[in-house]
Amino acid sequence: MAKKPKNVARKHRHWQRWLKLTLIAVFGFIILNLAINLAIRLPMNQQKPVDAILVLGGSIRREIYVANLAQQYQDIPILISEGSKDPCILLLFERAKAPKTNVWLEKCADSTFGNFFFAVPILKQWRVHKVKVVTSPTHLPRAQWLAAIHLQSHGIAVEIDAVREIGIPGNRESKLKTGLDVTRSIIWAFVGQLISPPCWQVIPLNSVDLEAWRDQGFQCESQGKIS
Question: Taking Cα atoms as reference points, which of 27, 15, 176, 207 lies closest to residue 107?
């Protein structure tokens, strides 16, 4: 009877040692990955040309801008994260005579944090080195901070294009919201070294069924000037 408690205690110590070593290994992997991404990959990628465009949803002005910009970047992928209605984006690209085969619509995000949360795994899958992030001046500095944290922590260099808004935009920034998003982004910069959240709602722009949307009836933002 006396041996049983000793065996239990020995197993308990063994389990504690194993857990401690596992945590050290995981933490070490995260730190090493971050160090390589920030100290080696990022400086190298900053010298490379833009090889992807990420559009943060929130204003059709951004999609008008990127539809015209696509003429200059015909061979690189464009990811529009939770933007305007699918047929509106399609019509904008058709009006601009911009290529549509390299444009993808991500439908999982519901916030600026979500834009980067779901975009980073997609950009990594595309093996992107440097991304142009399209947003608006009213969306800064939050979008700029989140882009730097989420993307650069994976070694992806960032350029920001801020598209001027017209009228009174609805997405005004608050210091509290910016602080909260920056805080959880820093936490995710560590966790995201281990986990890549998938988005199952990424569709190519050229697969949008315009006739089906017309049958349902749809309206675009008035600034898009699409009838």
Answer: 207
